[in-house]
Write a structure and sequence with these properties.
It is a single chain. It contains 18 helices and 7 strands. The chain is an alpha+beta fold and about 475 residues long. The protein folds into 2 domains: about 280 residues, no CATH class; about 160 residues, Alpha-Beta Plaits (2-Layer Sandwich). The strands form 2 sheets. Strands 2-3-1-6-7 form a 5-stranded mixed sheet. A two-stranded antiparallel sheet has the order 4-5. A hairpin with a 5-residue loop joins strand 4 and strand 5. The chain is elongated and about 95 Å long. The two termini are about 30 Å apart.
Length: about 475
């Protein structure tokens, strides 16, 4: 008999929140310190990644965006600037402007669909651009006046430089943070070693590097656009995160190489205004490969969804009958040198469950049955729904003894499991299983194995159900019908 339990009230633990605050403050401090070190004499920092990093961190981790988290970011900005000799009043002003921009972006990102936050739809990059413009505008309005106090520049010059810098940094850095899949998934997809396939996959990135070298050799204004075709090739080949990283690296290189004269350009009449125009153009140019990568990601996701709908049962998620048979035949062909087993499973007295609890109860039973069995199978095993309450499993590499052992574990697992019904109550169900095997090197097609497993399943039903039987492969004119 099951009894309900109440959870006791738990005393809130402040340690995780304090740890989060330290993480936020530390990251903001390091990013701000880097920006301060790159600040040119007599003006605001041309490279200021702290705001984009803070915004990306808050969007990726909403649990960080607490009053304590924002306060920690504020402290990180203050400490970084004061430790490098900043004036307290000016530091407070600039920090308020930085927080204003990041908070504006965070609130706007909460209004867009989740798929747009991770750049998974064709319109995602447009939403990203609009939010970055709003972030840059909010921060520049809040802090642009500090340019007169700091460097004797007029308000318009301060707000213009701040807006461009904020927009450039956001467009370059934010996509990397928003599309980052996590270190675990990166390790899973990291190549194990050198191979021709790896070289072929890396070819677009290598062409991108070569195009950068060509741009340095030729120089001129057109050199800025030379890497774009290779970058578009990368966006059609790699995932959105990889494209974002390559786009960021290229943009950062261009932003550094132009002032350093690594790419020879003609003499410009107004160097400062022309430099701002080039920086803004580079950032806007980065939108093209990001848009292509987002469209490609949406296309891949759509194909995967269509493939799953075509190959999987819509109710249980198991392979459909046609997909199961097709993959099983391919599995038999590929594993001819080792044993293979086939299990046919039929839930006992399933009609009684439908009659007692309705079709909703029967559907619940089927779904729980699939979840239960899937946990007992290996990744290489095939599991499909053949129709109604009948399922099948292909076990590559197993002989009769091992396959029978797996079938027995499946039978016992269902026998010991109470299935909750949507209308209330529990059901204890059982399953009958027929087993057929093919020895290593033996040629037996899938139809013969299905006939043998069906006969074994019929024998298990005739013998009283809730048992496992092993079938022999002798052809029969007709096959029995299960009830």
């Amino acid at each position: 008999m099951l009894t309900a339990t109440r959870e006791l009230p738990v005393r809130p633990d402040t340690q995780p929140q304090l740890a989060i605050a330290l993480i936020v403050a530390g990251i903001v401090f390091l990013a701000s310190f880097f920006g301060i070190l790159t600040r040119p004499v007599g003006f605001l920092a041309a490279v200021w990644p702290a705001n984009a990093i803070l915004l990306g961190m808050m969007v990726r981790n909403p649990s960080y965006a607490t009053p304590l988290g924002w306060l920690a970011a504020f402290v990180g900005y203050i400490v970084a600037d004061l430790s490098t000799g900043g004036n307290f009043f000016v530091t407070l002003w600039l920090t308020t402007a930085n927080i204003t921009g990041a908070l504006t972006g965070y609130l706007l990102f909460r209004l867009v669909p989740e798929s747009d936050r991770w750049l998974q739809r064709p319109s995602s990059v447009l939403h990203l651009f609009a939010i970055c413009c709003a972030v840059a505008l909010a921060a520049s309005i809040a802090g642009g006046g500090a340019a007169r106090l700091l460097f004797g520049k007029d308000f318009f010059s301060g707000i213009t430089f701040w807006f461009i810098t904020e927009l450039v940094n956001s467009l370059i850095i934010l996509p990397v943070l928003l599309t980052f899949p996590g270190f675990r998934r990166l390790r899973e997809h990291w190549p194990a070693g050198l191979s021709p396939a790896l070289f072929q996959h890396a070819l677009p990135a290598l062409v991108l590097v070569a195009s950068v070298g060509l741009a340095i050799m030729l120089g001129g204004p057109g050199a800025l656009a030379m890497p774009i075709p290779a970058l578009l090739w990368c966006s059609l080949t790699y995932k959105t995160f990889t494209t974002s990283v390559l786009t960021m690296l290229l943009s950062v290189w261009l932003l550094i190489s132009i002032p350093a004269n690594l790419i020879p350009l003609p003499e410009l009449p107004d160097p400062l205004r022309s430099l701002d125009s080039l920086r803004l153009g580079i950032a806007l140019m980065a939108l093209c490969p990001l848009t292509v990568a987002s469209i490609n990601a949406a296309r891949v996701e759509l194909i995967e969804r269509l493939s799953r709908a075509a190959n999987h049962d819509s109710l249980t998620g198991a392979l459909s009958r046609g997909a199961f048979i097709e993959r099983s035949e391919a599995c038999l062909q590929a594993n001819r040198d080792q044993g293979t087993a086939l299990l046919m499973l039929d839930i006992d007295h399933f009609k009684n469950i439908n009659d007692r609890f309705g079709h909703a109860g029967g559907d619940a039973m089927l779904k729980e049955f699939v979840v239960l069995i899937s946990r007992l199978l290996r990744p290489a095993d095939l599991f499909g729904r053949m129709g109604g309450e009948e399922f099948a499993v292909v076990l590559p590499g197993l002989d009769m003894i091992a396959a029978t052992s797996v079938a027995e574990r499946i039978r016992q697992a269902l026998e010991m499991r109470a299935i909750e019904m949507p209308s209330g109550g529990e059901v204890w169900a059982t399953v009958s299983i027929g087993v057929a095997t093919r020895a290593p090197g033996e040629y037996t097609d899938f139809d013969d194995m299905m006939l043998a497993a069906d006969r074994a399943l019929y024998e298990a039903k005739e013998a009283g159900r809730n048992m496992v039987r092993v079938g022999a492969r002798q052809p029969e004119a007709t096959s029995p019908t299960l009830n």
